[in-house]
Amino acid sequence: MITPQGIGVGAALAAALCWTLSSALWRQLPTSLTAAQLNLLKNWLALLLLAPALLLRPWGAQGAAAPFAWVLLGLSGVLGIALGDSLYFAALRRLGTRRTLTLDAGGPAVTALAGLVWLAEVPTAQHWFGLALITAALVLVALQQPAGVAHAGMPAAGERLGVLLALGALLAGSGGALLARAALRDGALDPLQAAAVRLLVAGLVLLPLARRLPAWPPRPRPAQRRWPLWVLATLLGTSAGIALQQTALQRLPGGMAVALLATAPLMALPLARLEGDHPGWRGVLAALLALGGITALVV
Q1: Which of 7, 21, 40, 174 is buried deepest, with most CB atoms within 10 A?
Q2: 134: pLDDT confidence band, cut at 50, 70 and 90?
Q3: pLDDT tens for residues 267-290?
Q4: Distances from the Cα of 73 to the Cαs of 36, 109, 182, 207, 235, in angstroms?
């Protein structure tokens, strides 16, 4: 018989796998759209896919939430989704799935440092050890150049830009997560509805980019259909990923859930060669350091 904790563990690992596969799909998607335009379409498609579940939930009870909580959610959508996901997509194109996910794993470290600066929360010795492990992982990834990028002839400046974009996505995503957690802290808002509000605000902020979208249907027609990849990547990364994440957070202690959700860089290792990326021992070590550092921070 499967226990609630077993369900939570399975959900956390499945969420990490969904995010890994969706990142690989977004990177492989053949498109002339900019990263921000791709993010715009992803957000509206995600809202469309979430609509059936959202319509079945009662919205009247959410009116009891403080207006400030709604403001925080809106700011979270702007910072974490509109800006953070756009930077993340841009980094994916330059660094590949494995390196981008490993750099993105520094989120708990950023959150811990933010608590130190703004909340005067002094980390323990174990937390400092975790921060050191994550920092070492980020440095390893930042200094590593995958074979696929070198083969594609990407200049060193493009490599550095990719690392900066990934770090920018990390900061924006962590800031958005902090704002969302502050909005959800009193428990008056439903997590799935809160996620929909964040997506909606992000989609509205990015909406001016719709004027620059290419005409539909494209001429000449592409050699392969792209919409199945769009739908699959959105279903995996945004719809299924969010639902599984919430299930894990509900059924597991917070530290265990975050640590299991952070296994995405390890899951990206088998996909690396498909992208022409050969991580070598440094790539494996960076993923293990990131996982170990996150575990030390949250356990």
Answers
A1: 40
A2: confident
A3: 777 777 766 666 777 777 877 887
A4: 20, 22, 9, 18, 22
This prediction has a pTM of 0.78
The closest alpha carbon to 100, from 280, 275, 241, belongs to 275
- Rounded CA-CA distance 265/274 in Å is 15
DSSP-assigned letter for residue 185? T
- Of 233, 171, 230, 234, which is closest to residue 199 (Cα–Cα)? 234
DSSP 122: -
pLDDT of residue 201: 93
Q: Distance (Å, rounded) from C-alpha 184 to C-alpha 11?
A: 21
End-to-end CA distance of the chain: 27
The C-alpha atoms of residue 83 and residue 104 are separated, in whole angstroms, by: 14
SS3 263: coil
**Number of Cβ within a 10 Å radius of residue 246:** 17
